[in-house]
Amino acid sequence: MTVDSWLADTRTSYDTVAESYADMLRDALADAPYERAILGLFAELVQARGGGAVADVGCGPGRLTAHLHRLGLDAFGVDLSPAMIDVARRDHPDLRFEVGSMTDLDLADSSVAGLLAWFSLIHVPDEEVPAVLAHFHRVLRPGGVALLGFHVGDEHRLKTQGYGGHPMKVYVHRRPAERVAAWLCDAGFTVEAQLLHRPDENRHGAFLYARRP
Q1: Is the pLDDT at 203 greater than 80, yes or no?
Q2: pLDDT at 2
Q3: pTM
Q4: What is the Cα–Cα distance from 11 to 76, expressed in whole angstroms?
Q5: Where are the chain's structural domains?
Q6: Would you say residue 12 has pLDDT above 90?
Q7: In whole numbers, what is the pLDDT of the chain averaged over residues?
Q8: 3-class secondary structure, 148
Q9: Nearest to 57 by CA among 98, 26, 7
Q10: Does domain 3-211 have CATH number 3.30.70.260?
């Protein structure tokens, strides 16, 4: 599978589900105290180093971008799906959203104080992850913090339907937290914390806080 093919499939899939995805998840944080705490710690870490621009990479309809903004961060969103960006701009007209890919992140070197990738790496094939993390490292300023959230496991599954029953064609990659942490270290990051969410359930996730030295 080429880079172009999986990117095209991911873009088309999320264009298809953009409206239903936004409707289903718009208020999800209200019933998610652990996620709010994880994002709150991220905001605190960014602000402790003086703040600055924060990129929500794979922002979807912008719900977390808006949450980070409410926490006092200068947050903006980037997403592969133009339809997702349209929804984000409609729902959050006061914030900045751009169409873009984490495989070729169109941000200047050392231009952001923080970077969030909230379950957006899950569709990136293993062989492409190091290049993506290299972009994350490049755009973060020294001392900047990245927060990665992802599904935990060791399997790759083709998702053909989702978010209201719409057709999709995306691979969902579940990975051990230790593997993602090792990739971060190889990319030049210092991993500062690892949190597991719902560790006794089939759908548990992990969150890694990493800093560019």
Answers
A1: no
A2: 57
A3: 0.95
A4: 19
A5: 3-211
A6: yes
A7: 95
A8: strand
A9: 98
A10: no
